[in-house]
Amino acid sequence: MNKKWTITEFEETIAKGLQESLHIHPAITRILAERGIRNFEEAKAFFRPDLNLLNDPWLMKDMDLAVNRILQARDRREKILVYGDYDVDGTTSIACVYDFLKKYFDSNIVDFYIPHRYREGYGISTAGIDFASGNGFQLVIALDCGIKSAGLIGYALEKGIEFIVCDHHLPDSVLPPAIAILNPKQIGCPYPYKELCGCGIGYKLIIALCHQLNLDPQVVANQYLDLVATAIAADIVPLNGENRILAYHGLKKANDRPNFGIRALAGLSGIEHEIHFHDLVFMIAPRINAAGRMDDASKAVQLFVAETPEKAQAYAKMLHSDNSDRKEADASITEEALAIIERDQYAYKNKSTVVYQPHWHKGVVGIVASRLIEKYYRPTVVLTQSGEVLSGSARSVKGFNLYEAIHECRETLLGYGGHFAAAGLTLLPEKIEAFRMKFEEVVSSRLEPHMLIPEILIDAEIHFRDIKDSFYRIILQMEPFGPENRKPVFIVRSVNESGYSRIVKERHIRFSLVQDGLTLTGIGFNMSEKFTLLLSGKPLDIVFTLDENEWNGQKKLQLKVIDMRIQTIEFNTMLPV
Questions:
Q1: Which CATH class is domain 344-452?
Q2: Tell me: the pLDDT tens digits for 396-454?
Q3: Pairing verdict, β 389-395 and 380-386
Q4: Domain span(s) for CATH 2.40.50.460 in the chain
Q5: How far apart are CA 41 and CA 200, in angstroms?
């Protein structure tokens, strides 16, 4: 698949000013300028995230109402139910708040509840409210959900149950009738940072409670930072501002004094080195998510509130097993789906993909949709049987509003929901062909040709002579990487193959490349089809990130190649020297 290479824009005067004050490589000051860093003080705050720079939780609208109601429940000995979603953000949110309340309130009045992914669906459910009512709970603290549940929270009020909603999703015009709503995105909330995840809002609530209970937040609230960092990693929120501070210090805690559950999952994931943010994203988070995808997410909460390493290990093994089942289902369903597409005589000209098999596991269809986009870059829907109806997940390509496209197909659907890049939907079995045709029609009419070409954003051009340990160490100080602070991507132009490059494990390329007499090695995963470019003998442009390869106790810098092409004059003219 050909990809579009785009050099990111930056303000040259800001980059030059940073160069004069920081005295580091101009490629790095350019990247800082791209990230919106304008001066020495902002660079200092970026490279040295400080917990003291976090905003006061009392700035959040309704924080006083939420704290007062929780303390009132404690004084009246009312039963409190901590309620959250089944994903990483939801389960870590519950674990933090539930653990805090158990320790500093009477543990007999506190419990937690997670809706079952398949029986109840996302967020507040009728079954969850009925559980609260049937078990005498008078206050529900909803975490990572609830902002769009006005009707259900009204139903709870009729049963004498009050809600505090702690959510980070975009509110509708009608807010739920909750006692308090903690959501920086709601109209009228003066809280300066708007991009906290659900667990981040739960953490802010804990800090405010610490203030009222005369507890030291540095001791009490900060014990949850590794869980907050895990939620930030999994929920794909921007890694700037407060999220960067929380992720940075949460990562430090994950390495220095980890939650027993984080430690157990890291061991079962095979992480033998220092935990990096990408380990939270790709190793820890999938195991937590697997609990809700394959079975019951409540054991993820039990993992994080376990009081001994032994108990945490037992729950971690359950999650690890769920993740193994998830990977097996993911691989087999992806293989089946690819085969269906390849057999479809019209697939090559379609602008969308819709695939269905009744036996596919509902918990992984969203993952499979993302896998199919890696192969066929176009809006994709994967459906399976769910009782008497079909249900599934949809994923989009960059720049295409998937939710609007599915909304245009609403006459063929029973229900749908989601956002710009991802959605879920249900429909009757007899409507699948009508939906497939309508979805293709809508996508074809709205999808612009450039949207079908994956884009690689490149931060800066460098040369092999720039790639030194000192250069790489500064890049490491830019971690954690994620949205709004992605790992720097570089381009080097006019390199040649040294004669020692080779294909490994049939799919990958082990690179050996030369520029100006300097030879560097690298790895390109799933790039074997481009090996002929190396053999052409022509100069190449390569796009890559920097990595460190450890072998036999020795560490060596290497290129992690993303893409390559034979050098072209047309592309060179796009790149400033």
A1: alpha beta
A2: 999 999 999 999 999 999 998 888 889 899 999 999 999 999 999 999 999 999 999 99
A3: antiparallel
A4: 4-9+456-572
A5: 25
